[in-house]
Amino acid sequence: MPKKEAMSAEDFQLKFEAIVTNVEKVIKGKSLPIRLVLTAIIAEGHVLLEDLPGTGKTMLARAIARTIKADESRIQCTPDLLPSDITGSSVIDMQTREFTFRQGPVFTNILLADEINRATPKTQSALLEAMQERRVSVDGITHELPKPFILLATQNPIELAGTFPLPEAQLDRFLFKVSLGYPEKDAEMQVLKANYTQEAIDGLAPICDKEDVLSLQAWCKEVEASDEIQSYIVDICRATRDDPSLQLPASPRASLALMRASRVVAASHGREDVIPDDVLMVLQPVLAHRIALTPDAALRDDTIDKVIERVSSRVKPPLLSGSAA
């Protein structure tokens, strides 16, 4: 793989933009959510897509999987879904009279868990080891998951009947929480035209493969996050712990998430070092699901977005010599 090892910052940017452009053939007018999901994939993180039905959450996952020529699986979460329906289980071979492991849908590159909050807590917890360790344990035997492995989970924030809200411990496993929202009129018109004769996803061709994604993931680990940037990230997370509106501030895992994501953002702009703007770009999707308001703050109509804006404005970004946005 000499060609992939010799990747430059410009090569990374071109590949990143090519993937975004290809996905935009299906998902119209949503460049930022596409970039965030792609950023999470390259940062080896998972994404919680929280939005109303019909906004393109499932289609976005399918479009990215096709673009990078990755294996994909889809789970429709329901209250009767069992952990073994996700991880797989041991079944007896009637000829040999021995148990063999039959892989579940988690053994894939991109796993789409539709309406994850409809699954019971026991089933939700079956994803914890897969998300964090990239492996599952069944009957005392550990099975490694394919690389790359990314979970894209969706949930409807409005419908609460028959749902089981994700606990904070599992929410913290997601790198980003992303919302697509309804498209503008022009973008929605483009959706109609793109799907006029057939579904746009059916004509989407891959432009790279899984090895390219692994190369992008490896390259980002060499992007420089200076001591000043690391201090900036820590100061932001520490500032949430002093905000009186929060009962659950950002943890050290949030600091790690900010650093990983901002390095990918820097690379996507053709740079080999992180600047404060890279951190600010991913601040909201990293922190939104990791912090929680106090009851009093909620009664005062304070919001998570206001808290994040307030905290980021209080922390002074470092002045980096020789860096440009």
Description:
By secondary structure, the chain is α/β, with parallel strands linked by helices. The protein has two domains: 2-82 and 108-217, Rossmann fold, CATH 3.40.50.300; 224-314, Magnesium chelatase subunit I, C-Terminal domain (Helicase, Ruva Protein, domain 3). Helix content is 44%, strand content 15%. It is built from 15 helices and eleven strands. It has helices at 2-5, 9-23, 31-42, 57-67, 84-87, 121-133, 168-171, 185-194, 210-220, 227-240, 252-268, 276-281, 283-287, 295-299, 304-314, and strands at residues 47-50, 72-76, 88-93, 98-103, 110-114, 135-138, 141-144, 150-155, 176-178, 246-248, 292-293. A five-stranded parallel sheet has the order 2-5-8-1-9. A two-stranded antiparallel sheet has the order 3-4. Strands 6-7 form a two-stranded antiparallel sheet. A hairpin with a 4-residue loop joins strand 3 (88-93) and strand 4 (98-103). The model has no long low-confidence stretch (mean pLDDT 89).
Round the mean pLDDT to the nearest integer and report it. Answer: 89
Helix/strand class: alpha/beta
| Dominant shape | globular
Give helix and strand order, one letter per element, not per position: HHHEHEHEEEHEEEHEHHHEHHHEHH
- Portion in strands: 5-15%
Strand order within the widest beta sheet: 2-5-8-1-9
| Radius of gyration of CA atoms, rounded to a whole number | 21 Å
Percentage of residues assigned to helices: 40-55%
Helix count, DSSP H or I runs of 4 or more residues: 15
The end-to-end span amounts to 32 Å
Q: Provide the CATH architecture of the largest domain.
A: 3-Layer(aba) Sandwich
List the domain count as a whole number.
Answer: 2
Q: So what's the CATH class of the largest domain?
A: Alpha Beta
What profile does the largest beta sheet have?
Answer: 5 strands, parallel
- Count of extended strands: 11
Contiguous runs where pLDDT drops below 50 for at least 5 residues = none
Please name the fourth-level CATH homologous superfamily of the largest domain.
P-loop containing nucleotide triphosphate hydrolases
CATH topology of the largest domain: Rossmann fold
